[in-house]
Amino acid sequence: HVSILLSHQVFSIVVFGSIVNEGYVNRVDELEEHCIFNRNHNACNYGITVGVLAFLSCLLYLALDAYFPQISSVKDRKKAVLSDIGVSAFWAFLWFVGFCFLTNQWQASKAEDNPLNEGGDAARAAITFSFFSIFTWGFLAFLAFRRLGDINFQEEYNTLFPNSPSLLP
């Protein structure tokens, strides 16, 4: 679980870092820089925002994973896992939207807007890691769903055998 969250952090850093670093270019005859994705600032802003917020969300859930074994109440554990499922599914959706949006804007970009093809590798990296993020966040939601099944089992076990020790760490 922790290694997947760390990969999410790396993916989000790649996405927002590549856009921030090389996602804005200008023509030779212009001073103002424009987003490399079809000169659409919304595309760059979306990639940066989702990347930064996903990174912060990873930090939050890393802290929750570290704190999780100390949560003694089965109901509180269930709430934590349900939030993990919801947040992970939400991020998978946001990365899907981001992948589609960035890909669409990259395809619509004109060669004359970037004659030196600056930032092309960064744009492709942002699109690629947005794509990878869809599946890793979806897999994290799946793992949280499995953890929820373990917690439900623990809850039923505690109901049937109230004086026995806990089965989950």
Automatic annotation (TrEMBL):
UniProt key word Ion transport: no
Q: How does it sit in the membrane?
A: Multi-pass membrane protein
> Which keywords label this protein?
Membrane, Transmembrane, Transmembrane helix
Annotated Pfam families:
MARVEL
- Residue stretches spanning the membrane: 46-68, 80-102, 122-145
Q: Which domain of life is it from?
A: Eukaryota
The protein's predominant localisation is membrane
Q: What is this protein called?
A: Synaptogyrin 1
Q: Which organism is it from?
A: Malurus cyaneus samueli
